[in-house]
Amino acid sequence: MQDQLPDFRLGNVLATSFTATLTERRGNAVERIPTPQRLVDWLVVNGLAVGGCTTAQLEHARELREAIHTAATAIATQDALPATAIQIINDCSIQGRAAAILTLEGNRQWQLGTASVEDALSVIAADATSIISGERDGKLALCASPTCQAAFFDTSQSRTRKWCDMNTCGNRQKKARFTANHRKNGTTGDS
Ligand SMILES: [Zn+2]
After folding, report:
1. Ligand 1 center from residue 178 Cα (angstroms)
2. What is the CATH number of domain 14-184?
3. How many CB atoms lie within 10 A of CB 18?
4. How close is the Cα of 111 to the center of ligand 1, in Å?
């Protein structure tokens, strides 16, 4: 059963990895956290282990996810920030408790106040704020795939990244272009 659930699309940025738990928003959308347990799994993978998750908390998490997606999209398209989305992000940030912990190896870890979903969401909301506010080095952009259009954080030197993920959207586009060229060349050859 667990094997049949969609896998996670993980990137280097917590907030956009989180928005990538719903992919192909403009096509056949894939929900990658379809159950409370899958949200727990996702949080564990991202260093935010929680004690458990209810259906209401999963809905709350998805609400935050869509708020981040909406706000990040507005920045990428240079539109005004939507007030509702900002409110949701801020509420989530305020509602949880988490502390940044430095390990002896010099890594940063999160210590959640009560190991609740709310604590974890506050970390994600704060991460979203850091990229939406522009305080972090990088640029929010939208994936060039028409069925995806996910907001991603471009940290490439030239700031010209086109795809949310090279292994999925980027690869698919490359393959499509290859097939199209192949066909075109084939037709030219025949005539
Ligand atoms: Zn994409």
Report:
1. 18
2. 1.10.3300.10
3. 29
4. 31
